[in-house]
Amino acid sequence: MSDYRGKLLVIGIGPGTREQMTRRAEAAIAEADTVVGYKTYLNLLGDLGPGKTVIASGMTEEVIRVQQAVDLAEEGRRVAVVSSGDPGVYGMAGLVFEILRERGWDPAAGLEVEVIPGTTAANSCAALVGAPLMHDYATISLSDHLTPWEVIARRVAAAAGADFVIALYNPSATRRKEPLAVTRATITRHRPGTTPVALVHEAYRLGQRVVITDLDHLLDHPVGMLATVIVGNSQTFVYKGFMVTPRGYAGKYRLEKGDAGQ
Ligand code: SAH
User: Does residue 262 carry a pLDDT above 60?
Assistant: First the structure.
């Protein structure tokens, strides 16, 4: 029976092109006979190799797509479900498990599941601007598609009040500009307008665009759906075009060359 046991490979492909994928993610795609994912992500991956069934879909069909993937794995196929970034960060992994639970899935008897991590947008975008996530940070998605706005607003206020660096996912869409404006206003109640902010569009993709600005000027720049916004904490600084949140070494050690004393 185990010969016919299907497998779901829930794969994070990282922010962009194949170079940013882990080896395990590459190998997992190679071992799948069926690959399911958004058209955009499948395009980013380029040639998937011969003999695979590819099921590409648009943005709003997540549930149907994952159900289809589970159906195929239950039939004994090895199905890759690809997510950008990490599949467990606003990605497909949670939905996969919700659907499996609905179906009464038992890992001892049913299909096998492997979740393969990838670099999430907060981390890839941070790398492009320096080291803004060196201290405690929170990620918040501003999309109210699946989360009521009141919940989002409460979390923004809590993270802002606790001086977390904040990485905002889904910061805006063409018809949805207010969430970012309201979020900026909330954070401004707790941090100076000079607090550094990074806007990173399409990290590690062809359309990559990086802007370092501050809370006061955040709304002067276009921010699209494919951007991640990183708002510094009260200690974050910009040095020579890099955004850095200090870990605290400077308070504890002297950082001049050749001086390792306290
Ligand atoms: N699972 C993904 C997140 C999906 S939610 C991950 O772990 O990264 C979609 C949001 O992710 C986008 O609105 C944007 O805020 C962010 N995002 C994903 N890829 C990105 C990239 N290459 N550059 C900048 N932001 C990105």
Answer: no
